[in-house]
Amino acid sequence: MASSEAQQQAARVAAALAREYPGAECELEHENGFQLLIATILAAQCTDERVNQVTRPLFQKYPTPAQLGALKQEELEELLRPTGFFRNKAKSVKACCQALVRDHNGEVPEELDALVQLPGVGRKTANLVLGVAYGIPTGVVVDTHVLRLSKRLGLADEKNADKAEQTLNQLLPQSEWIDFSHRLILHGRRVCKAKKPLCDNCSLHAICPRVGVEPAN
Ligand code: SF4
Q1: DSSP conformation letters of 3-38
Q2: How many angstroms is it from 52 CA to the middle of ligand 1?
Q3: Is 8 inside a domain boundary?
Q4: Which of 24, 100, 151, 216 is deepest in the core (most CB within 10 A)?
Q5: What is the count of structural domains for the chain?
Q6: Residues 89, 94, 143, 151: which is the catalytic one?
Q7: Same domain, yes or no, for 21 and 40?
Q8: Number of the ligand 1 atom closest to the C-alpha atom of 187
Q9: pLDDT in tens, the chain (217 residues)
């Protein structure tokens, strides 16, 4: 059970982020759940901007799981190459598309348990797709930014993303899970950077214990 002190800190952080980033949303371009699912798989270790550059022509030419999953591994690798780790990503995308066709009639399932069974899909991806594409909040989306900032802000001192998600889910109301994720990710990209967090210019400075952050020289 989350302590009330931790819940108060989470509420302060969520409110400050809402003031700073009121309109924050997922920056991966998509027109449906399938496109968001594939874009999220491709976004590992890659910027959203680069993923969008790759997925725009990709989805135009291969708009369905059946079409994308039918591509040869080598063809898919070439198309995905700019996103990095393209061999593994091509494998995951192909297997994911084939599983969607085989097990779900070519549709993206709207249940967490079914989504995380798909190749290349973990809780982070499943929570993002369900929250953004279907408006179903199943959990805070814990990527590398959320994991890092949760620790610095004194919310979740976990190394494991799934454990951090469980902690954050307990600290925040379910209705805030998705917006909170987008805002924290944006703050991590712009201000609370991995190597050099810009604490002097951070709107959360007054409420941040800066756990694990080295004092500036
Ligand atoms: S004060 Fe520093 S450590 Fe805390 S959120 Fe802002 S940038 Fe990150």
Answers
A1: -HHHHHHHHHHHHHHHHH-TT----S--SSHHHHHH
A2: 29
A3: yes
A4: 100
A5: 2
A6: 143
A7: no
A8: 5
A9: 567 999 999 999 999 999 999 999 999 999 999 999 999 999 999 999 999 999 999 999 999 999 999 999 999 999 999 999 999 999 999 999 999 999 999 999 999 999 999 999 999 999 999 999 999 999 999 999 999 999 999 999 999 999 999 999 999 999 999 999 999 999 999 999 999 999 999 999 999 999 999 876 5
